[in-house]
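Reviewer 2 asked us to include a model.

Predict the structure of this chain.
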Amino acid sequence: MELNPTDKQEKPDLAKPLSATHVRCMQNLSKSELVGFVELEVGSLAVQVPIRAAAAATELPLASFEAEGDNCAILVRGDTSSKAVEVALREAAQEAVKHLSKKLLN
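Predicted model (structure tokens):
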């Protein structure tokens, strides 16, 4: 039985990056301005993760954890003294602990 090409459903290309914005942030991970550090407890380890300023973007969260190879950082978009950024920073720190736990403790 031969399928009509219009009957085929297009399968997603899993090798494609999810979004161009995400890739752009990853490339700027070590080039963006250093704002400070947050010390996270990962098991019995104390890990310092840099907090870096990132360009404001409407489609991205106010703060996010990003990892590129052996480098990682929490990227902050917006005024670091605002309450919304503080909340987003805490959530990004939780993501960082999850990531670092998998990487360092396994």
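The chain has a mean pLDDT of 77. The two ends are 49 Å apart (CA to CA). We have added this to the supplementary material.
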